[in-house]
Amino acid sequence: MDFSDxxxxxxxxxxxxxxxxxxxxxEVVDKLVLDTIKVDLATEKSMNGYTILYGNYGxxxxxxxxxxxxxxxxxxxxxxxxxxxxxxxxxxxxTDLAIISEEKIPDELVFAVTVALFQxxxxxxxxxxxxxxxxxxxxxxxxxxxxxxxxxYLRSSLGRKSSQLDMLSAPxxxxxxxxxxxxxxxxxxxxxxxxxTLQESSLGKALITDETTAAFTTALEDLEVACPSLDxxxxxxxxxxxxxGKDSGRIDADHHRMYT
Length: 260
Hints:
With 260 residues, the protein is an alpha/beta fold. Helices cover 30% and strands 24% of the residues. The chain is built from 7 helices and 11 strands. It has helices spanning 12-15, 21-36, 59-67, 110-120, 176-187, 210-223, 232-242, and strands at 37-41, 50-55, 72-79, 82-89, 96-101, 123-133, 151-155, 166-167, 192-199, 201-202, 205-206. Strands 1-3-4-5-2-6-9-7-8 form a 9-stranded mixed beta sheet, sandwiched between helices. A two-stranded antiparallel sheet has the order 10-11. The protein is globular and about 50 Å long.
């Protein structure tokens, strides 16, 4: 085949210029949002917008539950008839909303959930609370071993800058709902900072500890982000409740010993 020959027909990607792929995608997402995802808010919306603190399932969710223990539940995000996140209003600031994941959001729905969230909640800034596993972290120095507690961060173009925190360096990436929210904020020119606490694992399961969870507090102070004080007693109570749950590191029916 002579690659210098001209195409016999117009390439497919240019043949339908009148059709907008972005519009088609938007229609699909809007239909998905209407059919499966619902954001309920039982309070009058702030005309000035909210500061949204989003706790991803894991240490981020545990941290916000312990910090907003005196807050008021004012809404939820539902996937069909199942609540996947709770919306908690701060008792100190009426424009601070904590969105706390109740479970991991499926990857195929993270963009639709993000669109539904921001359609219903006018926002001035977003702070994300997430984690990264030490076993999955890639560093140029093979001998380097990070120890807890450490918090790294990523920011949108307009997000707050830190003088103390290290960036989550390439090629390490954020995924799931955190990636979807950061992308949305970048596209819509919203300030956004994502905090990632180092999380250890045991027997293939992530370990959520008070030390790694409380590390978010120092990061928030450095970024000068106002947040309700962490209730350490409540934090330990939440972690005790998970000790033998599906998120614990103990051996259960899904893990088999390699010896007898």
